[in-house]
Design a protein that fits this description.
10 strands; 7 helices; single chain; 6-stranded mixed beta sheet; 4-stranded antiparallel beta sheet; about 220 residues; alpha/beta
């Protein structure tokens, strides 16, 4: 593996076909992401940024090219092996938080760890919650938390599994301006504190200013 490169995409592309049209969502591109780097991918709706994130997170398969995680190709893994990679190596943060309403904040955070048959380190989880300012939400259910608190809980859940990379898909899309900037600031802080690689797609130029690196995507073409 090249020094400090956690995730690498080599000449990947994606075209979606229907009975009437063909959409070249992502034109061939090669990208690499290093340990502890916070990267923002900025683009308008329909530009291809979510397609790129889905390919990097193995939620979709590119038409060509290769995805390397930790220097190893992950595209040809069996379904069970790929599921294990997602559980242990890739943290996801979604626009709609994707918390389970019947679980408390703490239970939501540790759920992926427990589903993987492991026992969480309580002190570590509480440390992450303190860093993200949600200690007071420990025993609250999602409907008892604000949108900002729910999104910070989702970020804590992603950090808790100690993944190789966190993929954040428009994480501030459902938040007001004040909460949006707080969530982005905390993502940036978490990247530094935990040496965590984070890739975030967004249409918000102000949010991207907190990133270490900004990539732009337009009509499926990625540029620095």
């Amino acid at each position: 593996m090249k020094d400090n490169i956690i995730l690498e995409a080599l000449d990947i592309s994606k075209t979606y076909h229907s009975s009437e049209i063909e959409v070249e969502a992502l034109k061939p591109c090669s990208l690499s992401f290093t340990k502890g780097e916070f990267t923002a991918v900025i683009g308008k709706s329909g530009s291809g940024k979510t397609t790129l994130l889905h390919l990097l997170g193995t939620q979709d398969v590119p038409d060509q090219g290769e995805i390397l995680l930790g220097g190893k190709s992950i595209l040809n893994l069996s379904d069970s092996a790929l599921s294990r990679v997602r559980r242990r190596k890739i943290g996801f943060v979604y626009q709609d938080y994707s918390l389970f309403p019947e679980y408390t904040a703490y239970e939501n955070i540790v759920l992926p760890i427990r589903l993987d048959g492991r026992k969480e380190e309580t002190a570590e989880i509480e440390g992450i919650m303190e860093t993200l300012g949600i200690t007071h939400c420990r025993d609250k259910f999602p409907n008892e938390m604000s949108g900002g608190e729910q999104q910070r809980t989702a970020i804590a859940r992603a950090l808790a599994i100690k993944p190789a990379v966190i993929l954040a898909d428009e994480p501030t899309g459902n938040l007001d301006a004040e909460n949006s900037l707080e969530v982005i600031r905390l993502l940036s802080q978490a990247s530094k504190r935990y040496d965590q690689t984070i890739i975030m797609v967004t249409h918000d130029r102000e949010a991207s200013s907190y990133a270490d690196r900004v990539l732009r995507i337009r009509d499926g073409v990625v540029s620095a």
